[in-house]
Every structure is written in C-alpha cells, then in structure tokens.
Design brief:
Blueprint (H helix, E strand, L loop, with lengths): L6 E7 L14 E7 L12 E3 L2 E2 L4 E2 L28 H23 L12 E9 L3 E4 L4 E9 L2 E4 L4 H16 L9 H20 L2 H10 L5 E4 L2 E5 L5 H11 L2 H6 L7 H4 L18 H25 L8 E3 H21 L11 H15 L8 H11 L31 H4 L3 H10 L11 E13 L5 E16 L3 H5 L12 E12 L5 E7 L4 H12 L14 H9 L10
Parallel strand pairs: 3-6, 6-8
Antiparallel strand pairs: 1-2, 4-5, 7-8, 8-9, 10-11, 11-12, 13-14, 14-15, 15-16
Helix pairs in contact: 1-2, 1-9, 2-3, 3-8, 3-9, 4-9, 8-9, 8-11, 10-11
Length: about 575
C-alpha cells in the first residue's frame, strides 16, 4: 500500500476575482489542507459548510466529494473551468480550504490542536448567508457568515476573497486561543482582534508564490528581462515604497473599491498608513477597525522590510537586476516566517487587557527563544524599529534592552515541592493549586475570584535543533466593586468622574510559561492592583468621554462589522 500523505490539495482563488490576467483569467492557486474524509458540504472534523441563503430562503445542494487513491478527495475544480466563479459549490470549496489552511497554519506554529471558542468541534460556515456587504464571526452561532451584494451589474461574493475568509477565520481561531480578548477593555484590545485578523489574512495571501509572482510580473508593467534562461527584475521595483505603492496597493483594487465600507481588504488600506507616531492619540483611530489598521500597517511594513533585507542578500546580474524567482521565494519566506512568529507570540501575551506594546514584547521574546542569533537579517531589530515608527513601544520596566519580556526572577521563592508537574501539563486544578500556594510571590489578590482558564502544551524546535517543550497557563482574577470602594482596593484616590454608586468589575490576569523542567520561565501579568492601568481602562469604558456608548469590545463582532460597513472610511491618510 502506498504511503498516505497527511495533506490534500484544493483549488482556490489566490486572492479575489479582481486579481486576473489581462485576458480576464482569474488567478487560482492550489493549497494544501489536512487530509480527511469529507462529507457533503464539504464537511470535515473541524468545519461544516452549510450553504443556506437566508435572504432568498434557499438551501443549495452541496457537492459530494469522491475519494481518490490515498484517501484524498477528488478536487472537482482542478483544473478550473470557465464559469467556475459563478458555481456556488466552488464558493463552498473556497471557504472550506481557506479556513482549514488558516487553522492548520496556527496548529503548525503552536505545535498543538486548537479548540474553537465555543462548545463543540465544528465551525459552521455559511458562504451565501445574506444579501449585505458584510462578513463576520459569531460565537453564539458558532459560525462564519459571508454576505454578497450587487455592485452595478456584477455580484460580489465576500466568500471569494481570500482576505476576507482568512480574516474571519482568524477571529474564530483567536477566540479559541484567547477568549479574554473578546472582553471589553482599553482601546487596543478590540483593535488587536481586527488588526491581527488583517495580518494573518495578508501574510496568508503573500505566502503564496502565485500571488507574489502575479503582482511582480503582471501589475503596472514591471520590466522583466531574460538572461540565460533566468528571469530578471529591476531592483528599483523591489524597494520598500515601490512594493507598497504598486505591489500591495494594486492587488484586487477593483474588488477593494466595491467593498470599501466592509473594511475587509487590508492589502489596500493598511499600506496607505505611512509611519507616524501620532496615530495612537488621533481620535480618528479610536474605532476598532481603524485602530487595528495601525497594528496591521506596522506588521505589513515589517514584512516588506524583512523581504527587502532578504532580497539584498541575493546576488545581482548586473545593472541592479535580480533573479525574479529567487525574489519571489524570499518574499514568500518572509511572509511565512513572520506569520509563524506572529502566531507564536500569542502564547507570550497576557490573556486580558492586551495593548499593542505587550504584543510587540511577545513577538520579540518568542523569536528570541527560537532564534537567539538574529545577526543575518536582524528580524527583531527591524520589527522593533518599524513598530516604533508607528508609536508602538514595549512596556517600560518589564522588558530588557532588546525589548523582550524579563525572565521570571523569583524562582527561588516559588514552592515547587507540593506540585505534580506531570499533572500541571494538563490539569487546571493542579495549576490553580500551584498558583494559590505561591499567591504572594505571583502577586495574586486573595480577595479576588481567581481561576485558571487554560493549560496548553507548546511544542517547537529549539535553536539547537532539539524539541522545545513549554506549558502555557493562563489565569484571570476579578473583583466586583462600587466606586466608593475604589480607594480601599487600589490605594489611589477615586477618579472625579466616578460616582460612589458606580458598579464595575475590575480584572487581573497572567500568563505563566513553564519550561521543560517545570520551572517558571516567564510570568506575563496584568496585576489587578495596577491602579494606573485600571483607571485608564475604566475611564475608556465608562468615563465622561465614552459618551455612554457600548464599550470597545470585540465580543460583538457582528455589530462592529456592520457599523463599519455603514460608515465611510475614517482618517484618510495621504500617501
């Protein structure tokens, strides 16, 4: 019997219908997804596609996938035929393949399976959910909903955009990894949910060679020459601004124009955000999508900087010309490596009240853990400098000179003798016992309600080539109080805007990283007694400038996406 592979290929649109050759042929790609025996839909062990159109009250007939030798499903759209973009069954395959590719990319980076943020194993995907220029993830419905709408004489299907599908899939995956990020918090947390989903979408797209090759060879007439069978491209077209203004901005321009209100095309919007340290304090960037663009822009600019750094290490063929295929490979590698780092950084982030600076510290730390020697391309310095150009800095006093989290310094005070490390690898009760016995050293408030929310193994290859095992544990603490109790709890004067009768909940949280020996490597915490942060958070949510609006939470992604779709783009930035 032939050896069975653990993946199978499916045909998808590499970007969206607007990315097409001069003769109008759309750009397709073949992507690998986990091998599984598919039921109609397609339906697998993690994803169930249900093609019900609520606006038309119509249930489309699903395609029945046949099995090929090696238990692989037969791809009915290989090769893609004329009219395939009008076939609802292709739309179903598109959403299934992109979501499963995104999920498997997270699991590869983290070295473990990822649960959804709701009870159950299968995420429902509805590719033609309603007639509306919108798409969203709903925890309550356990579903991704994709709308469609008419633009002039053409119908636009959000399910056909790789950007949009990967973006919404990331919301669902992130909810499973960090459920606390859906809570109401300061201005950055909901923005991070949106910005991070954009980042995964754009890096997922640009890890496909087909997309990079298309953009470099067919957009705006970039001059490609042949020399001894080698395709050569002018180095001037590969500088930061040239890539930003032509490569990224040009992809799917027509599709993006039809969907400007949806805010689901990060490749077109974030690139326009030139570096500036003024964005974070600009009221135009308070709305979650707009503020998330700052984060996405910093990551996108970092990807371009990393690509240019890798490209400069290549030799030239005279007259500043580079081997096009080598440049494409380096671009795909830069996108894929940054995506891996970005995903792994989630494990090194606090579970609640995230700020952009915390994530930056996590990003730098996790890369330093995996690749201590960063001298070849200087990834970490490029990332740190790029984020600083957008006003994002690591937390002062909690990070070292390289911007990484400080390692845990109080292991000699920690009581390990009463804990069973083997149980701590998987048992939240055992981890809670450990935390409670060490509550003073870990600065856990005994008056708060504290619970361990997750215990997750992490597996990856270390810098010496051996397997690096870590255990990531998250806990949260909360206290319900009235304004009259503020001073007693925080040892700080009660803010003038806070009434004594105001009821509120304050939170603390922490992420504990245990090494392979069961000792604490990092304690990344948000102390409940951090009065300065609590005042900022509460003022943002309930203070006089909040205008009584709903707090800036990612929990209601449906409301956030619909509100964005109904308003013009904020804060137009001049290139």
């Amino acid at each position: 019997m032939a050896a069975k592979a653990n993946t199978q290929p499916f045909t998808i649109l590499a970007q969206d219908p607007a990315v097409a050759s001069p003769d109008g042929t759309p750009l397709f790609a073949k992507v690998s997804v986990p091998l599984e025996s598919l039921a109609d839909g397609p339906t697998g062990y993690r994803v169930k596609v249900i093609d019900f159109d609520a606006s038309a009250n119509r249930l489309y007939t699903p395609h029945t996938y046949q099995q090929a030798p090696g238990d692989k499903a037969v791809d009915p759209f290989d090769p893609p035929q004329a009219g395939v973009l009008a076939d609802p069954r292709f739309h179903c395959q598109q959403v299934y393949a992109v979501v499963m590719r995104t999920l498997s990319r997270f699991e590869l980076a983290l070295g473990r399976r990822i649960a959804w943020g709701f009870d159950g194993h299968q995420l429902h995907i509805v590719p033609h959910a309603f007639v509306e220029a919108n798409a969203f993830y709903s925890r309550d419905d356990r579903a991704l909903m994709f709308g469609y709408f008419q633009d002039g004489e053409d119908w636009v299907f959000t399910a056909l955009s790789h950007d949009i599908v990967a973006h919404e899939a990331t919301h669902a995956i992130l909810d499973g990894l960090r459920a606390g990020f859906m809570n109401a918090s300061g201005p950055d947390q909901a923005a991070f949910h949106e910005g991070f989903a954009d980042v995964v979408a754009l890096l997922s797209v640009f890890s496909l060679r087909e997309v990079i090759e298309f953009a470099l060879t067919r957009y705006r007439g970039v001059d490609i020459q042949q020399q001894d069978g080698v395709r050569l491209i002018d180095g001037d077209a590969l500088e930061i601004d040239a890539l930003a203004d032509t490569l990224l901005f040009g992809l799917g321009e027509q599709f993006g124009q039809a969907m400007t209100g949806l805010r689901a095309n990060p490749l077109r919007r974030s690139v326009q955000l030139r570096p500036s340290t003024d964005y974070l304090d600009n009221p135009d960037y308070a709305e979650p999508h707009s503020r998330g663009e700052i984060f996405a822009a910093a990551m996108l600019r970092s990807m371009l900087e990393l690509w240019v750094a890798r490209r400069k290490s290549l030799g030239t063929f005279g007259n500043n010309r580079y081997n096009l295929d080598a440049v494409i490979d380096e671009g795909a590698k830069a996108a894929d490596q940054l995506l891996t780092i970005a995903i792994r950084a989630l494990d090194y982030s606090p579970p609640l009240d995230l700020e952009f600076g915390h994530y930056l510290a996590a990003l730098l730390t996790v890369d330093a853990e995996v690749a201590p020697d960063d001298s070849r391309y200087s990834y970490r310095q490029i990332i740190r400098d790029t984020f600083a150009a957008y006003g994002i800095q690591v937390p002062a006093g909690r990070t070292d000179a390289d911007g990484c989290w400080l390692t845990f310094a109080d292991n000699e005070k920690i009581q390990y003798r009463s804990s069973h490390f083997d149980s701590m690898l998987r048992d939240s009760e055992e981890v809670f016992r450990f935390i409670w016995e060490n509550r003073e050293t870990l600065h856990i408030d005994t008056d708060a309600y504290t619970e361990v929310t997750s215990v997750r193994p992490s597996l990856r290859f270390g810098p010496d080539g051996f397997i690096l095992r870590e255990t990531v544990c998250e806990y949260t603490s909360r206290v319900n109080l009235f304004g009259a109790e503020f001073k007693a709890v925080f040892k700080e004067p009660r803010p003038a805007w806070m009434a004594t009768t105001d009821a509120m909940t304050v939170y603390g949280a922490g992420t504990l990283i245990f090494d392979q020996y069961g000792r604490i490597k990092y304690h990344i915490d948000r102390p409940l007694t951090d009065a300065r942060w609590q005042v900022r958070r509460l003022e943002w949510l309930y203070g006089p400038e909040s205008n009584g609006a709903a707090p800036g939470s990612a929990a209601d992604l449906v409301r956030i996406h619909r509100a964005r779709a109904m308003q013009p783009l904020a804060g137009e930035v001049q290139p």
